[in-house]
Design a protein that fits this description.
Length: 203
């Protein structure tokens, strides 16, 4: 009985794995195209992940989402995630434009945390998209969250994520760390802008 009940859940997550493969391939093709055109490759590396069962469960409880696969698919947009790490800020927007111009990609939501950073200093371009996957007897549209960042943005975000869970520190020290992290984010953004300016001068 347990095995039979797990089959629909395994199929559900397989759809997201397939969607990730589709998205990754699209960005890899774009990266190769830039290289063929004699330009430097804009993508440093690509990461992907499927949200864990525990993370999904926490979001279900927090948002009071019905406990069905249909409700998960409808209400949780970041079950599948692809992160594209770029060399320069302009690469982010150029890649995003090329990616979104493809006729099988449907943009659901766009959040530009580079133009408007979060209060803690977090920067990234977030795209929620739907991409088709082709199965044996059907085509399904699957939602994926795509994040585009520079190397500096990703470095800061990775450290901030680790420090965010250090809850055993006193509040005074947590506030001090948050202030320092915000300063680091601003300095990192300034560094990104300077590197982009140098690149523009060279070109």
């Amino acid at each position: 009985m347990l095995e039979e009940s797990m089959i629909p859940l395994q199929q559900f997550f397989t759809y997201y794995k397939c969607a990730i493969m589709e998205i990754e391939t699209k960005f890899k093709v774009l990266n190769e195209q830039f290289s063929i055109n004699g330009e430097s490759n804009p993508i440093e590396f690509i990461q992907s992940r499927i949200k864990s069962y525990s993370s999904i469960f926490r979001k279900v409880m927090k948002k009071n989402i019905p406990n069905t696969l249909e409700a998960l698919e409808e209400n949780i947009h970041d079950i599948a995630g692809v992160r594209v790490i770029c060399s320069f800020i302009q690469d982010i927007y150029r890649l995003a434009d090329c990616f979104l111009s493809q006729d099988d990609i449907t943009l659901i939501e766009r959040k530009d945390y580079i133009e408007s950073p979060k209060p803690n200093g977090y920067r990234s371009l977030h795209l929620i998209v739907a991409v088709p996957i082709f199965l044996e007897n059907e085509k399904r549209m699957v939602k994926v969250e795509v994040q585009l960042r520079t190397i500096a943005m990703d470095f800061w975000a990775s450290l901030e994520h680790k420090l965010r869970y250090k809850k055993d520190l006193p509040q005074e020290k947590l506030d001090l760390l948050a202030s320092d992290m915000k300063k680091c984010a601003d300095e990192s953004a300034s560094w990104d802008m300077r590197m982009q300016s140098i690149k523009n001068m060279i070109e």
